[in-house]
Amino acid sequence: MGKTSAGITALTHATKRWPDYWLPYFLLDNYFLNHDLNLANFWYRQGYELATQESAYLNNYAYALNAIGCNKLAKQTIKQALILAPKDANIIDTQQAIYNSTGTVQCSVLSI
What are the residues whose beta carbons fall under 8 Å from the beta carbon of 46, sequence distance 6 or more? Predict the structure, then answer.
């Protein structure tokens, strides 16, 4: 746990030191995607504007949005990822999962 905590601290500091670089946000997002969906979505939102040309970021953000029931936003986000990488198997898999899911009417995430 100590190494994980140190890594999270370092990445959080990296978002402050280099606020215009998308990668630390992406690494935080990916960690929290498996541990806390609300924190994952928080970090995805923080780095979103910096990563609009990063298909992997958009793919994972779409997955996270769908996981918290934000199906409409997930569909918008996965469409962006597909424009950037239309043949990426991971993105296509995420798209299928999103379109097979119903989501919820309530979505606590603001529009992207």
Answer: 15, 25
CA atoms of 90 and 103, how far apart (whole Å): 20
Instruction: Give the pLDDT confidence of 43-68 residue by residue, as tens digits.
Output: 999 999 999 999 999 999 999 999 99
CA 17 – CA 92 distance, rounded (Å): 34
Residue with tokens 């280099």: 18
Q: Check: CB of residue 97 under 8 Å from CB of residue 66.
A: yes
Residue 25: which pLDDT band, with cuts at 50, 70 and 90?
A: very high
Q: What is the DSSP string of 28-89?
A: HHHHHHTT-HHHHHHHHHHHGGG-TT-HHHHHHHHHHHHHTT-HHHHHHHHHHHHHH-TT-H
CA distance linking residue 9 with residue 18, whole number of Å: 14
Tokens of residue 52, six digits: 């609009």
